[in-house]
């Protein structure tokens, strides 16, 4: 199991060799490119894109071009997320959720699933050489099973994929519903990646995941004073804090699962 530290600081790639998770948009205006010292994966930024705009503004070809530039200048990444469509209520219905405003796509869960699968197929046809991972979307166990069927009908063997992203479970990860979804998808034999998994979620279902990522360290640091000896207002952008938090997450996993969280186990 590989745990990626999610960050918005792309220069961290040259500062550490722990697995990192970054959005593709962080390289959009890059002039200086930092060569990765360790493994990393690329997020498409879908949650914020759909939250703020209600649709994908970047075309699949533009996204593929961006992924190629990253691969060329930064080095080979483990995998990249597609331009998937989350199925969370806030993303679909829109409105105020948790103090944030969501534009809303005003589409159905089924439509989001179809668009997710169609985008993956298009991206893979445009760039079969790039490591673009399929993502399963849904809001209930039957819905996720339906998404699996859509991939199967399209000729995609999810069991043969090195990574299969599990979308829309970030806010459910520590609940019974979230655990049921992860368990059902893991039963298929998929090598699952859990987006945005934190301590409680990893304690419950981390042993069923091939990898996971989290950016929770930043908001955690923002609510606390800086580390001793640090002069900034808080450590929300601090690699020292992020690495310490990451180790704390790994150490919180029950002993029998810790061997699944090593940095290089998937290398």
TrEMBL record:
Residues 2-265 form the DeoxyPurine in DNA protein A domain. It comes from the Bacteria. InterPro entries: DpdA (IPR055645). This is DeoxyPurine in DNA protein A domain-containing protein. The lineage of its organism: Bacteria, Bacillati, Actinomycetota, Actinomycetes, Kitasatosporales.
């Amino acid at each position: 199991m590989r745990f990626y530290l999610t960050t918005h600081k792309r220069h961290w790639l040259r500062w550490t060799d722990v697995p990192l998770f970054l959005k593709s948009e962080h390289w959009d205006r890059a002039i200086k490119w930092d060569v990765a010292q360790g493994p990393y994966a690329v997020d498409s930024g879908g949650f914020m894109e759909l939250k703020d705009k209600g649709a994908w503004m970047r075309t699949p070809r533009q996204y593929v071009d961006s992924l190629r530039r990253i691969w060329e200048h930064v080095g080979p990444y483990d995998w990249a997320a597609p331009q998937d469509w989350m199925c969370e209520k806030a993303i679909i219905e829109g409105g105020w959720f948790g103090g944030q405003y969501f534009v809303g796509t005003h589409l159905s869960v089924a439509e989001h699933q179809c668009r997710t699968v169609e985008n993956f197929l298009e991206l893979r046809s445009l760039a079969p050489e790039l490591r673009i991972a399929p993502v399963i979307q849904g809001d209930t166990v039957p819905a996720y099973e339906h998404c699996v069927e859509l991939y199967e009908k399209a000729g995609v063997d999810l069991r043969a994929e090195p990574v299969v992203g599990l979308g829309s479970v970030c806010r459910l990860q520590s609940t019974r519903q979230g655990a049921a979804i992860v368990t059902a998808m893991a039963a298929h034999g998929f090598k699952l990646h859990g987006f945005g998994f934190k301590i409680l979620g990893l304690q419950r279902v981390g042993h069923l995941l091939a990898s996971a990522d989290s950016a929770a360290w930043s908001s955690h640091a923002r609510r606390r004073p800086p580390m001793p000896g640090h002069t900034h207002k808080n450590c929300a952008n601090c690699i020292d804090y992020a690495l310490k938090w990451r180790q704390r997450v790994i150490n919180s996993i029950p002993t029998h699962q810790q061997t699944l969280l090593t940095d290089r186990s998937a290398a």
